[in-house]
Design brief:
single chain, alpha/beta, eight-stranded parallel barrel, 15 helices, binds phosphoenolpyruvate, binds manganese (II) ion
């Protein structure tokens, strides 16, 4: 080589086409008034350590591949929208505990390994049906999640502020740190099944759980007496996920993995594409098709067979086991009609994605007293419909995707506590969609375990 010859080093992110999305239509992005600040923030984010390691992401993909082939079940749950204010030790612990309890119910009830995944440590951005919200004649930008703007209805709070992206990163990091501490440090030890139930109000779901915990205790004591080694019970895997919505966050968090030379979105283990941003030739599809993480796609009741086959081709052309999760959210009244043709076409095409039900987003209602809510019976009915459809077609119903909290809120109607419209007025906390509370979540887990065991 001549000494004055320039060495052109190929940039792996250029080769991977990570910025191709910029030429495409990007739905649901905020309008940032301060673009210079935005560029500064993106540059800072790009220097921050990854939140997850690519090796963990690969392990998750293997776990999801097991679920897709009927050997495991995915439990994915958490807030509709996490908030900075609620990233407290107590609330994170309650959500983790609720997920651990649900996982125990599923594992024990259905004798099946459960992959635990939070809508946690990154679920800070929301798609909205309208760009603005009007109250008493005042029109302001819609709340798009804590990563973008504040919920308070003032111009200052609703103005998109890029420094919130840094706070989203930091809050995700501290949330994930606590999750890792809980799940690796002994809190999630299966011998603590009773502990997780303490502090929750006494209701039928909790007492049913307590009975199951007693049986598990007995089984563990029996195994211990037989000389079993319980190191495996001490820790548990727990993965993170959120909707991949904001390019100004996901792109700087996407890094080339030094082991494989391929891109991973290191903001979470699993990223999903929402019903509103899954346009085939849109920016979200393009960008996420290029990262190696396992991906989810939400499918509403109007999804066509062509849509599904094309999105499989786009996101998973190699049919890589565990790569693609299809999350149907049809509504209780529609799932039995809308889902079978999709499942059948995918099966006939020889693809084996992981099928998951989101029984929340197709069942929204507004109550007479003005609350965004969901009927617990509708949620349960959509879960039943999901199992029926897969039973009929001989495919595996591989998971549930739930909006839940570990706290004693009243946001969804019904359940064993018979939450009614008036009760919503006293304990409604969500800034976005209504979540199952602790006991409703447990109740749902018992139903899913029964359906799975009867499969
Ligand atoms: C969500 O999961 O909060 C959401 C907005 O879902 P969907 O894309 O299914 O409407
Ligand atoms: Mn939601």
């Amino acid at each position: 080589m001549l000494s004055n010859e320039k060495v052109v080093v190929a940039d792996p992110s250029v080769i991977a086409g990570l910025d191709n999305y910029r030429n495409l239509e990007a739905a649901q992005q905020p309008t940032w008034p301060d673009l210079q600040k935005l560029e500064e923030v993106k540059a800072i984010l790009a220097t921050y350590p990854p939140l997850v390691f690519a090796g963990e992401v690969d392990i998750l993909k293997n776990r999801l591949a097991q679920a897709a082939s009927g050997e495991a079940f995915l439990l994915q749950g958490g807030d509709c929208a996490e908030t900075f204010a609620d990233a407290t030790a107590d609330r994170i612990r309650n959500r983790v505990k609720t997920m651990l309890q649900m996982a125990v119910v599923l594992t024990y009830g259905a004798s099946m390994p459960v992959v635990k995944m939070g809508r946690m440590a990154g679920q800070f951005a929301k798609p909205r049906s309208s760009d603005t919200e009007t109250r008493e004649g005042l029109e302001l930008p819609a709340y798009r999640g804590d990563a973008v703007n504040g919920y308070d209805f003032t111009l200052e709070s609703r103005t998109a502020d890029p420094t919130r992206l840094l706070q989203a990163y930091n809050t995700s990091a501290s949330t994930l740190n606590l999750i890792r501490a809980f799940t690796m440090g002994g809190f999630a030890d299966l011998r603590s099944v009773h502990e997780w139930n303490k502090g929750f109000t006494d209701n039928p779901a909790n007492s049913r759980y307590e009975n199951m915990a007693r049986e598990i205790d007995k089984a563990i004591k029996f195994m211990a007496a037989c000389g079993a080694n319980f190191n495996e019970l001490r820790t548990t895997e727990f993965y993170t996920s959120h909707e991949g919505l904001l390019f100004d966050y996901e792109r700087p968090m996407t890094r080339i993995d030094s082991r494989t030379g391929t891109p991973y979105d290191t903001s979470a283990h699993f990223i999903w594409i929402g019903e509103r941003t899954r346009k085939l030739d849109g920016a979200h599809m393009d960008f996420l098709s290029r990262v190696r993480n396992p991906l989810g796609v939400k499918l509403g009741p109007n999804t066509s067979v062509d849509d599904v086959l094309a999105l499989i081709e786009k996101l998973d052309p190699e049919r890589e086991p565990g790569r693609l999760t299809l999350i149907s959210r049809m509504g209780a009244g529609k799932i039995r009609e809308a889902l079978p043709k999709l499942v059948k076409a995918v099966k006939d095409a020889g693809a084996q994605p992981l099928w998951v039900t989101d029984p929340m987003h197709g069942n929204g209602i507004t109550t007479a007293n003005g609350y965004k809510s969901r009927r617990f019976d509708d949620v349960m009915d959509e879960v039943r419909g999901f199992f029926e459809v897969h039973r009929d077609l001989g495919t595996f119903p591989g998971g549930v995707h739930i909006e839940l909290t570990g706290d004693d809120v009243a946001e969804c109607l019904g359940g064993s506590e018979h939450i009614d419209e008036a009760t919503l007025e006293s304990r409604y906390e969500s800034l976005c969609d209504p979540r199952l509370n602790h006991s409703q979540s447990l109740e749902l887990a018992f139903l899913v375990a029964e359906e799975l065991a009867a499969k």
